[in-house]
Amino acid sequence: MPVVMASDQVARTITRIAHEIVERNRTLDDVALVGIRTRGVPIARRLSSVLHDITGATVPTGVLDITLYRDDLMRHPVGPQPVLRKTEIDFSIDDQRILLVDDVLYTGRTIRAALDALIDFGRPRSIELAVLVDRGHRELPIKADYVGKNLPTSLRESVRVRLEEVEGLDEVVLEHASGH
Amino acid sequence: MLPVTEGARRPADGTSTDRGGPPGVRPVVDTPSGLRAKDLLSISDLSTDEILLILDTAEAMKEVGTRTIKKVPTLRGQTVVNLFFEASTRTRTSFEIAEKRLSADTLNVAATGSSVAKGETLADTVRNLEAMAPDMIVLRHASAGAGHLAARLCRARVINAGDGMHEHPTQALLDALTIRQRKGRVEGLKVSIIGDLLHSRVLRSNVLLLRALGAEVCACGPATLMLPDMARLGVRATTSVDEAVEGADVIMLLRIQLERMRGYFFPSQREYFRQFGMTMARLRRAKPDVIIMHPGPMNRGVEIASEVADGPDSVILAQVANGVAVRMAVLYLLAGARQEERGS
């Protein structure tokens, strides 16, 4: 079980992404963060907090649950049915520049669903994507604008992101799928 | 690793980023993420965890109703038939709005104006609808067990929207959601249900659900409209309204169902109101933060005084609003029920 990012690396990476966001944007006045449940949410909150430390700006942060937009709901996957949780976007996304935040970018299907969900809330000026880990194997034409770490993986491996807010510690672990 | 055919590869329960385990073996989860049964026919089919799953899902569904575009693509391409053999405004409208918000294709079949009026049996109507391959049937019927019959006859998932004097599970679920929102919990609350107990499917579903969630339930009505086996269900029965209201956290009033009454159960509606009608004066015995519920349709001046129905303690319209969210949750959870458990 190789640890590919330890706690201090996770923190540094999020800080680095925040600096990149500041560099690439003249102003943060019309930028809003939207974290994808589950682990995109704490990452978005941390980004917002670092952005505040750097610029003093308060960047609104929303929570998006993509369950109702998944493309595999009626395909009866092997795993359990996804549990629906609340979407909380209490600001207008019209004409805002939205930065979607997730933990791992993999097939791109989650992001496809998130884009559909966001568009139902209004018409943002632009949507960008920030991820902590990009593990490759895209099935859709989607790419991230801000990447914490590019992590080449095989399909037999799985990437586990653990976060303080969810699991009580920060780390990214590359696991070999057991049992086959 | 999940098989490649699985879609977003996002863990369904949100507990880990990438779920391991061999394909074909379902991971062990503590709390259910779906419903076990193909149909929703009775509250007794649901485990306590499943009840809580429906309520939590409904809580999340409420947000869809607050959007400018009140629609999500979840049930796109699914056909839902609303088969109503009994009059209904609230329940049918509520189901239809829920179905449309989830993008299902809906069609309404009412007893009048359909082949039912020509003498077709329920079984034949259901078999014929089944031949057109709907994904779900929402059924209301005057006979107890109609949903069970329909569920045996078809692969479509069946939701009981009221079967005679038996059950009305989605009503009890929306009542529980309303109580939980207002009180923060259901467990330990004193819930008094007052009115026509004998003819009420709302009572039966509510008793099963409220007991499962640990509420203390008191049922009150005229001796002629009392249910025989209340004690077996863990319900305290009384014919004294004052006793039922005393210290109640929740008061749920039931309609006097004249259309189901064969014979005389009380002298007159005015007499009933004097004995059992909920008035501001009677309400003073309840807890100061009591909430007043009614499944509708209300008979003002019979089981409830207008000043109570429209008063500050009334959550009757909140119940209606929650109805849509609860039905969205049930439709979503049944639609996602796993393949090997369907059509059994």
Question: Would you give an account of this structure?
Answer:
The complex is a heterodimer of chains A (180) and B (344). With 180 residues, chain A is an alpha/beta fold. Chain A is built from 4 helices and 8 strands, in the order βαβαββαβββαβ. Chain A has a 5-stranded parallel β-sheet. A 3-stranded antiparallel β-sheet of chain A has the order 1-8-7. Chain A is globular and about 45 Å long. Chain B has 344 residues and is α/β, with parallel strands linked by helices. Helices cover 33% and strands 13% of the residues of chain B. Chain B has helices spanning 48-61, 90-101, 122-131, 146-153, 169-183, 201-212, 241-245, 269-276, 280-283, 306-309, 316-335, and strands at 79-84, 105-110, 136-141, 157-163, 190-194, 216-220, 236-238, 250-253, 291-293. Chain B has a 5-stranded parallel β-sheet. Chain B has a 4-stranded parallel β-sheet with strand order 2-1-3-4, sandwiched between helices. In chain B, helix 3 (122-131) packs parallel to helix 4 (146-153), helix 5 (169-183) packs across helix 6 and helix 5 (169-183) packs across helix 11 (316-335). The two termini of chain B are 28 Å apart. Chains A and B meet through helix 3 and strand 7 of A and helix 1 and helix 11 of B.
